[in-house]
């Protein structure tokens, strides 16, 4: 038996918060659109629709039809190693979590899994893989991965908003909106901010 994993990320460009990588694994003959007819790139869906699809993903995972996970690289890791390496680490963590069965031919492992990734993303070299430009739009399994990554990252940013209410993370999720930039200028950077992303906006201000 063979499996396919769709992989996409959410949160590459924000000024604050982690980057998230979603990975969804299905049997090779699984029909994603039949099971999730509303699936499309997460950016084309309303928050409510993304939440509905995510809840269905959980249901399908509980019945064993699919498997999925989301892994994060935090702002400190992004500042230390750069966004590309931070994304790569989260990809590796996610696919290895789903395929940790080297000794069982009937279970997912690097030997019987094919990975589909959006854009220029890359999985670890031991996996058969294909990168697809605009894969989050063209390939339903990658679209599903983008949805689970987006939903989980947004939820995390809403929780962070309770710790740092002055920044409005619940509204912009860390992206560089006018509201967010104004808050940075007023309050400085917090521990969630990616200082390497903010250096042109705010230099020399204290970290809270």
TrEMBL record:
Keywords assigned: Cytoplasm, Endonuclease, Hydrolase, Manganese, Metal-binding, Nuclease
Per the database entry, which stretches of residues form a coiled coil?
none
Q: What is its main location?
A: cytoplasm
- Biological processes per GO annotation: DNA replication, removal of RNA primer; mismatch repair
Residues reported in the UniProt entry to bind a divalent metal cation: 8-9, 118
Where is it localised?
Cytoplasm
Q: What is its EC number?
A: 3.1.26.4
**Cofactor binding note from Swiss-Prot or TrEMBL:** Manganese or magnesium. Binds 1 divalent metal ion per monomer in the absence of substrate. May bind a second metal ion after substrate binding.
Query: Does this entry carry the keyword Hydrolase?
Result: yes
Q: Which Pfam families match?
A: RNase_HII
The Gene Ontology terms for molecular function here are: metal ion binding; RNA binding; RNA-DNA hybrid ribonuclease activity
Query: Which ranges carry the RNase H type-2 domain?
Result: 2-208
Is-annotated flag, keyword Manganese?
A: yes
Listed cofactors: Mn(2+); Mg(2+)
Provide the reaction this enzyme catalyses.
Endonucleolytic cleavage to 5'-phosphomonoester
Naming one, the record's GO cellular component terms include: cytoplasm
User: Its family?
Assistant: Belongs to the RNase HII family. RnhC subfamily.
Q: What does this protein do?
A: Endonuclease that specifically degrades the RNA of RNA-DNA hybrids.
Query: NCBIfam families given for it?
Result: PRK00015.1-3 (NF000595)
> What's the protein here called?
Ribonuclease
Q: Which organism is it from?
A: Candidatus Kaiserbacteria bacterium GW2011_GWC2_49_12
């Amino acid at each position: 038996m063979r499996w396919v994993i769709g992989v996409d990320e959410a949160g590459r460009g924000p000024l604050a918060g982690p980057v998230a990588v979603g990975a969804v694994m299905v049997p090779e003959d699984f029909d994603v659109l039949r099971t999730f007819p509303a699936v499309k790139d997460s950016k084309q869906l309303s928050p409510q629709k993304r939440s509905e699809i995510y809840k269905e993903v959980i249901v399908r995972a509980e019945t064993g039809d699919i498997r999925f996970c989301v892994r994060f690289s935090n702002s400190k890791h992004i500042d230390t190693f750069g966004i590309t390496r931070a994304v790569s680490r989260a990809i590796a963590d996610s696919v290895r979590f789903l395929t940790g069965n080297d000794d069982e031919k009937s279970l997912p492992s690097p030997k019987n899994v094919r990975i589909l990734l959006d854009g220029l993303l890359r999985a670890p070299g031991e996996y058969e893989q294909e990168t697809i430009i605009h894969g989050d739009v063209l390939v339903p399994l990658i679209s599903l991965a983008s949805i689970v990554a987006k939903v989980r990252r947004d939820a995390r940013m809403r929780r962070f908003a309770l710790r740092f209410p002055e920044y409005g993370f619940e509204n912009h999720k860390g992206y560089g909106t006018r509201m967010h930039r104004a808050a940075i200028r007023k309050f400085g950077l917090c521990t969630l901010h990616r200082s390497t992303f903010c250096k042109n906006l705010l230099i020399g201000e204290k970290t809270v």
